[in-house]
């Protein structure tokens, strides 16, 4: 290989390496700050495309355009009513001024650390100024029944701020500090709120005793209502039975009266009819009075025996 060819190959490699080191690509979701010996130079690059820089002297610092998340560590925070709770939070933030961001924070790790201080501090301040009901609920509750207030207990406490308003207050206060850092907090939420372990047991026991008391009240009211219903049932049953007994006795009385009138009419007929009637009544009396095991002593002059003695 001649020296000329070797020089051409070396020149080609040099040009390729120079092009690779000089040219960089900016994607749609990126923004770039060019630094020279660690100091920013030129304007911030926010549009996607291919750009040039001086190799070995200038550096392209790439930052995200997209929303980024921040997850806070659960912290023990006291409320205004002196109740210690664990508060777990999260937020969404964005780099709005890459140049200021680079000067103050350098990279995203520094931003996360700074957000820990800002958001945790603002969360503690806002929570400490409000009662726990304000942190749990956003609106006031209206009971639909007269007894619902007793069932829910202190959950009907009137709130003046509420959870949503507290989140807005934290975002507003935090953005005042974050503005000079080149970032903006877009959203902030309470992810989880709970009592500390030392207080949980006491709260659960109080809730259980309250629910037991309400259950005993409902149970006693139910037993009283059951007794009232049973009393009305027994009274109505006795009224029905007495009315039925009265009707039955009236029917029996009418039947006995009709039978007596029939017997009287038959008895007032001829002597033979009266004799037949007496005989039938005597036989009926014998049938209902005596059985196979009955032993009696009768006079021959008795009314019953005279039909047996002289048919």
Task: Give the key terms.
Tetrahydropterin Synthase, Chain A, 4-stranded antiparallel β-sheet, 3-stranded antiparallel β-sheet, about 55% helix, alpha+beta
Summary, kept brief:
By secondary structure, this protein is α+β, with helices and mostly antiparallel strands. It is 54% helix and 18% strand.
Biggest beta-sheet profile: 4 strands, antiparallel
According to CATH, what is the topology of the largest domain? Tetrahydropterin Synthase, Chain A
Series of H and E elements = HEEEEEEEEHHHHHEHHH
Contiguous helical run count: 9
Strand residues, percent: 15-25%
Name the average pLDDT. 82
Summed up, the domain count is 4
Low-confidence stretches: 146-151
The best one-word shape is rod-shaped
CATH architecture identity of the largest domain: 2-Layer Sandwich
State Rg: 53 Å
In CATH's first tier, which class of the largest domain applies?
Alpha Beta
According to CATH, the homologous superfamily of the largest domain is: Band 7 domain
Helix content: 40-55%
Number of strands: 9
- What is the end-to-end distance? 169 Å
Structural class from helices and strands? alpha+beta
What does this structure look like?
The protein is of the alpha+beta class. The chain has four domains: 3-63, no CATH class; 68-195, Tetrahydropterin Synthase, Chain A (2-Layer Sandwich), CATH 3.30.479.30; 198-268; 270-311. Helices cover 54% and strands 18% of the residues. The chain is built from nine helices and nine strands. The strands form three sheets. Strands 6, 7, 8 and 9 form a four-stranded antiparallel sheet that branches. Strand 7 (75-78) and strand 8 form a beta hairpin. The longest helix is centred in the last third of the chain and has 71 residues, at 197-267. It is rod-shaped. It starts with a helix and ends with a helix. The relative contact order is 0.07. Mean pLDDT is 82; it is low at 146-151.
């Amino acid at each position: 290989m001649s020296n000329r060819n070797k020089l051409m190959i070396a020149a080609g490699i040099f040009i390729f390496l120079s092009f690779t080191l000089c040219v960089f690509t900016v994607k749609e979701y990126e923004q770039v700050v060019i630094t020279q010996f660690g100091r920013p130079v030129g304007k911030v690059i926010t549009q996607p495309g291919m750009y040039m820089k001086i190799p070995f002297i200038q550096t392209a610092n790439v930052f995200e355009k997209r929303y980024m998340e921040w997850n806070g560590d659960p912290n023990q925070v006291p409320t205004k009513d002196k109740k210690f709770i664990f508060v777990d939070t999260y937020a969404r933030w964005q780099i709005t001024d890459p140049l200021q961001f680079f000067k103050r924070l350098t990279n995203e790790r520094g931003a996360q650390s700074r957000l820990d201080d800002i958001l945790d501090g603002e969360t503690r301040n806002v929570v400490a100024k409000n009662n726990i009901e304000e942190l749990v609920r956003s609106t006031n509750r209206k009971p639909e029944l007269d007894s619902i207030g007793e069932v829910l207990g202190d959950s009907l406490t009137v709130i003046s701020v509420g959870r949503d308003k507290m989140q807005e207050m934290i975002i507003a206060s935090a953005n005042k500090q974050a503005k000079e850092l080149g970032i903006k907090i877009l959203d902030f939420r309470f992810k989880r709120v709970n009592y500390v372990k030392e207080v949980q047991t006491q709260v659960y026991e109080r809730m259980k005793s309250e629910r037991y008391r309400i259950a005993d009240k409902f149970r006693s009211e139910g037993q009283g209502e059951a007794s009232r219903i049973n009393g009305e049932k027994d009274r109505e049953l006795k009224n029905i039975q007495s009315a039925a007994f009265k009707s039955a006795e009236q029917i029996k009385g009418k039947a006995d009266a009709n039978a007596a009138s029939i017997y009287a009419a038959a008895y007032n007929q001829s002597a033979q009819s009266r004799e037949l009637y007496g005989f039938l009544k005597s036989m009926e009396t014998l049938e209902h009075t005596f059985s196979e095991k009955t032993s009696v002593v009768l006079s021959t002059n008795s009314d019953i025996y005279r039909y047996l003695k002289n048919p």
